[in-house]
Amino acid sequence: MKKFKPIIIVAGEPNSIFLEIFFKALKKKIKSPLILIASYKLLKLQMKKLNYKKKITILDYKKLSNYNLNNKSINLININYNASKAFDKISLKSNSYIEQSFKIGLNIIKSGITNKFINGPISKKSFLKKKHLGITEYISEKFSSNNTAMLIYNKSLSVCPITTHLPLKLVNKKVDKKIIKNKVKLIVNFYKSFLKFEPQIAILGLNPHCESIDDYNEDEKVIKPSVIELKKIGYKVSGPHSADTIFLKDNRKKFDVIIGMYHDQVLSPIKTIYEYDAINITLGLPFIRISPDHGPNEKMLGKNKSNPLSLIRAISFLDKN
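Now predict its structure.
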């Protein structure tokens, strides 16, 4: 019988909907053993609050290779967190807990036990404190990976922003040919390795309708030459395309991936089209890192109404690869 590598799951922000959707995801059939990195105390409090019952097995993360794991219980690596109630307001209080959770999770990855990693959402404002643009960059730094890409993946259509959580006034300074070409190469390598085909890629312009009243037009000076160079070496790319029409049904169906120049240019439409049916994959790391494509969602804490589809898709993707 095939032995499946475990999936490491860092729960992330303790005051989020993540454990709720984790409980819901466990109802699905999963072949790979799941190893949750979270607080035992918090886990018990939220299980009680959400009326969820399941046995918990506490693991020693230094002895993971000694366990014969399955998903009949929650396999937990406990991280101490002084929780007095199931849910609280997001604050700096949780930072050391989140940091320790990531540290142990990434050390397990570095040990070679598995190459499958999921993390729950965090608060960028509280945890990253402007030191990193997002968790993509935070994890990339831990592995000295300078060439990474954020792929919001859906089996029908995926998107990738050239810049991630960057203020709009700074975007044009980060749009250059090297970055565009590197992102395309990462995406194509991913599709060939995991999905076994080469994707059709649309590259968007930066300016409305790919036109600019300014003397310097990034679409003509940077993006169009990048597309031409990528085509010359055999990549299936086209552009620059106008961002206001590319996501129309008859246009988007021609492509597997749409690359935009900034975060909301492509994430807003993909979330509108697929809602929770997409996952955030970091390309360019020496392992597969995925997160559900949503944040902590404080407004939904404790209501037991959150949609687990994105986490289910994340686990399913790793379960197959």
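The mean pLDDT is 94.
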